[in-house]
Automatic annotation (TrEMBL):
Keywords: Oxidoreductase. Belongs to the short-chain dehydrogenases/reductases (SDR) family. SMART domains: PKS_KR. InterPro entries: KR_dom (IPR057326), NAD(P)-bd_dom_sf (IPR036291), SDR_fam (IPR002347). One of its GO terms (molecular function) is oxidoreductase activity. It comes from Kaustia mangrovi. Residues 7-142 form the Ketoreductase domain. This is SDR family oxidoreductase.
Length: 246
């Protein structure tokens, strides 16, 4: 496909899992793609090599989401390297769990830094560069809208925060014809949540279609939002969870 020819995308947390699938898919659709990673240098390099082997252009940037300045610098590095930025995908995230009363303020700060503060930093920096027709997509979670088990309160807090932020920024950037949306995956087979993990049967038990997403399923939805057919969709939430929240 070529619907993103000439576009440049930045995907945070593109070294593994959903972010890597999004990076590969946007590149397949014609975009030049920058990815960030925290520690997986080799895996990030492998994603870049795979995109290049398929005839695309990509680069990897080390930027820990715990450091807002590093996230801003990653946006600037992508713009300098590729000359523009059209699509920002806020994907990097962590899943810290524990019962309330045992979760600490340090846990709170870590989760909010990675899952929320870094998104604010990236969106703020990208907003200075995104042209008419630009796209912002954040990866939330179906756990933002429904919390079916204990111990998830902090993670759900962080992902729910992105919903309000998405809607607010959609209003800010709408006059510039930039769309801003959030995609809420349910159980998706990655290192974070393997389909053969200890709790995977419990998760499948909630679903109308009891099958984990593959990362590429989420990437397809992001690619649609990033592409020309998504131009009138903004401030919206998309749940892709096999009906777990239905
Ligand atoms: P993985 O743990 O498989 O991959 C996480 C990615 O994010 C890696 O590329 C990792 O980089 C990066 N990352 C993690 N912490 C940081 C950090 N501090 N700074 C920069 N990058 C970081 O997760 P998934 O692919 O499963 O998850 C991707 C997103 O989807 C997350 O936001 C997650 O909350 C969300 N999600 C996932 C679901 C699932 O079932 N898998 C369900 C719902 C939402 P590195 O390799 O360097 O560590």
């Amino acid at each position: 496909m070529t619907s993103l020819n000439g576009k440049v995308a930045l995907v945070t947390g593109g070294s593994r899992g959903i972010g890597a699938a999004i990076a590969r898919r946007l590149a397949d659709d014609g975009a030049r793609v920058a990815i960030t990673y925290a520690t997986s240098k080799d895996k990030a390099a492998a994603v870049v090599a795979e995109i290049e082997a398929a005839g695309g252009e990509a680069m990897a940037i080390q930027a820990d989401n715990r450091d807002g300045d590093a996230v801003v610098a990653a946006v600037e590095t992508a713009v300098s390297a590729f000359g523009r930025l059209d699509i920002l995908v806020n994907n990097a995230g962590i899943f810290d769990i524990g019962p309330i009363g045992e979760l600490t303020l340090e846990d709170f700060d870590r989760t909010m830094d990675v899952n929320v503060r870094a998104v604010f930093a990236a969106v703020s920096a990208a907003a200075r560069h995104l042209p008419e027709g630009g796209r912002i997509v954040s990866i939330g979670s179906n756990l933002a809208g429904r919390v079916p088990w204990p111990t998830i309160s902090l993670y759900s807090l962080s992902k729910a925060a992105l919903v309000g932020f998405t809607k607010g920024v959609a209003r800010d950037l709408g006059p510039r014809n930039i769309t801003v949306n959030i995609v809420h995956p349910g159980s998706t087979d990655t290192d974070m949540n393997p389909a053969d993990g200890e709790l995977s049967d419990t998760q499948r038990g909630l679903m109308a279609i009891p099958r984990y997403n593959e990362a590429g399923d989420v990437a397809g939805l992001v690619a649609w939002l990033a592409g020309p057919d998504g131009r009138s969709v903004t401030g919206a939430e998309f749940t892709i969870d096999g009906g777990a929240n239905a």
